[in-house]
């Protein structure tokens, strides 16, 4: 079981001195019932560089229901282009790969090389506007004889606008709902979602189609692979113990849908019987052998279907040495949910029904 870490900061902005140095504190929480070793590192966004940051004692032992503080020092190198930058703190368990337990903090922004802003001299703008108005009125009176001047036509630009880009966030390790919320906040969206049978991580995003930090256009869909724990299917019809009269068509099998299933595998078996001495011996095992005279009438069929119904076409036969038809028409079936990658969930258990193949009072070979 991986720890569900939390990482936070008390600020959304770092104040950097003129030399490019600053300090920030991250708080890491362990809400789980067992202690774990937490590792904190820095995820640099856009133009920032993770090498500018030094984490003091990056690996800590965090006891259950407690928090620890990490101090991170920023030292931007001389000559770094001025501008706005951002980072995130990432925490994960030391004993498992980062992608299995990592959590990200909110974004923290900082600026480098930006001079302090001075108050804008609005009085110059006001004086210039008044001067333009006065000169305009005087010019109109002198040169146009009082007639209004034609209105200037606003110039239009034909240059195409650059599409707005946004960096894809880290979605792996979050829930599908949390991933959808993050993408919506960035004007992105979830694309195709595929499910993989991995019960220990059910509900978690295992993989995203576009890596974290990649800049994409607004509205870009991000495909996800999400872990599920497939349950056993609940069989519906025909019910166990049902019987179908002679001449009936093979019945359609139905079951209840399983959450997260990409399809289903249906296993159908017919029962084979043989007359040994004074007993009739029946089995579903195709590999069983009762003697040299045994003729194998077993049939095992596997069907892969997308919905929750199956219509098998399996031949049913009566063994010529079995004087009782009641033992030769038994059929059993079960269903397994299948994920989008072909892995099976648990078996449903078997339902058994009976197909009457001949009249009970008829003995001997089947015609």
Largest sheet: 6 strands, mixed
Mean pLDDT: 82
CATH architecture of the largest domain: Sandwich
Q: Could you name the CATH topology of the largest domain?
A: Immunoglobulin-like
- Number of structural units classed as domains: 3
| Elements, N to C (H/E) | EEEEEEEEHEEHEHEEEEEEEEEEEEEEE
**Strand content range:** 35-45%
Q: In CATH, what is the class of the largest domain? A: Mainly Beta
Straight-line N-to-C gap: 62 Å
Number of strands: 26
Low-pLDDT sequence parts:
291-297, 323-327, 363-367
Silhouette: elongated
Estimated radius of gyration: 37 Å
Q: Percent of residues in helical segments?
A: under 10%
Count of separate DSSP helical elements: 3
Instruction: Classify the secondary structure makeup into a structural class.
Output: mainly beta
Description:
The protein is mostly beta strands and 367 residues long. The protein has helices at 98-101, 122-143, 176-185, and strands at residues 6-9, 13-14, 21-30, 36-45, 53-55, 59-62, 66-75, 83-93, 103-104, 108-112, 165-167, 189-197, 205-208, 215-217, 221-228, 235-237, 243-244, 253-255, 263-270, 272-276, 279-283, 299-305, 309-310, 330-338, 344-347, 351-355. A hairpin with a 5-residue loop joins strand 24 and strand 25. The longest helix has 22 residues, at 122-143. The protein is elongated and about 115 Å long.
């Amino acid at each position: 079981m991986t720890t569900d870490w939390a990482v936070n900061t008390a600020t959304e902005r770092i104040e950097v001195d003129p030399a490019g140095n600053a300090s920030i504190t991250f708080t890491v929480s362990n809400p789980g019932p067992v202690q774990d070793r937490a590792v904190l590192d820095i995820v640099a966004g856009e133009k920032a560089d993770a090498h500018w940051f030094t984490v003091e004692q990056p690996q800590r032992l965090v006891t259950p229901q407690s928090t620890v503080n990490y101090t991170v020092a920023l030292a931007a190198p001389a000559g770094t282009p001025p501008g706005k930058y951002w980072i995130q703190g990432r925490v994960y368990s030391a004993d498992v790969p980062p992608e299995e337990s990592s959590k990200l903090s909110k974004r923290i922004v900082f600026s480098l090389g930006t001079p302090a802003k001075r108050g804008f001299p609005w009085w110059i703008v006001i004086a210039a506007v008044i001067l333009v108005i006065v000169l305009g009125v005087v010019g109109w009176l002198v040169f146009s004889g009082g007639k209004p001047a034609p209105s200037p036509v606003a110039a239009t630009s034909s240059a195409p606008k650059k599409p707005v880009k946004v960096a894809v966030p880290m979605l792996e390790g979050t829930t599908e709902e949390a991933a959808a919320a993050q993408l919506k906040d960035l004007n992105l969206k979830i694309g195709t979602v595929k499910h993989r049978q991995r019960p220990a991580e059910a509900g978690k995003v295992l993989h995203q189609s576009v890596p974290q930090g990649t800049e994409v256009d607004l509205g870009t869909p991000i495909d996800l692979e999400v872990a599920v724990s497939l349950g056993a299917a609940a069989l519906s019809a025909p019910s166990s113990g049902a019987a179908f009269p002679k001449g009936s068509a093979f019945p359609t099998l139905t079951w209840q849908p399983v959450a997260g299933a990409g399809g289903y595998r249906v296993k159908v078996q017919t029962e084979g019987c043989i007359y040994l001495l004074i007993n009739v011996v029946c089995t579903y095992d195709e590999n069983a052998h009762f003697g040299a005279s045994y003729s194998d009438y077993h049939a095992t069929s596997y069907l892969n279907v997308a919905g929750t119904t199956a219509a098998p076409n399996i031949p049913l036969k009566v063994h010529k040495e079995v004087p009782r038809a009641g033992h030769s028409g038994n059929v059993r079936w079960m269903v397994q949910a299948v994920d989008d990658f072909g892995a099976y969930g648990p078996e449903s258990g078997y339902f058994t029904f009976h197909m009457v193949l001949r009249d009970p009072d008829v003995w001997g070979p089947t015609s």
